[in-house]
Amino acid sequence: MLAQAIGEIRKVNKVKGIDFSNKMKSLVDKYNARKGDIFGGGVFGDMANELTELIMQVKEEFSTGDKLGIDFEEKAFYDILLELCKKYEFNYPEKKLIELAKHVKELVDSQSKFPDWSKRDDIKSSLKVGLILLLDEHGYPPVERDEVYEEIFEQAENFKKYNG
Question: Mind listing the pLDDT tens digit for each residue in 78-99?
């Protein structure tokens, strides 16, 4: 069930889905690498605690946008924008990040409203241009990195693939 919940998150929020998948894989790897009896030496208790913590984090993820004043889907775009700030080492004010995430989701919804949007290069190109213009309008990113646009577009494609 945990893997299924993580899969549902990944359908909307690629960044968090990958993060939770990696955490779960790490737990499974740790379990598989254990030495000796699982019931001895506190291994079972440690694994149960770590698994419970991961379950709580996954459960909490569905409502973390509430604290920011954004919904679960807008939070997916917030997370990719924030992740890119960290990855490419630039600062962008959180309040502006929240507003930008809302605008990005709105643009993605409006540009990809056609069922076959992912197969139509004209619509995908229009979405890419729209995203670049929107991001530029908001001064994001404040550094020259073409990879930023690609990663945001990948999140948009992932989002619409499962929620279109």
Answer: 999 999 999 999 999 999 999 9
- Under a CB-based contact definition with an 8 Å cutoff, are residues 2 and 23 in contact? no
Largest CA distance in the chain: 61
Q: What pTM did the predictor assign?
A: 0.83
Which residues touch 91 (CB under 8 Å, ≥6 apart)?
85, 142
Q: Which long-range contacts (CB under 8 A, 24 or more apart) does 36-45 make?
A: none
Instruction: Single out the residue of 151, 159, 141 nearest to residue 100, CA to CA.
Output: 141
What gap in Å lies between CA 25 and CA 28, rounded to an integer? Answer: 5
Cα distance between residue 72 and residue 140, in whole Å = 22
Q: Is the pLDDT of residue 41 over 70?
A: no
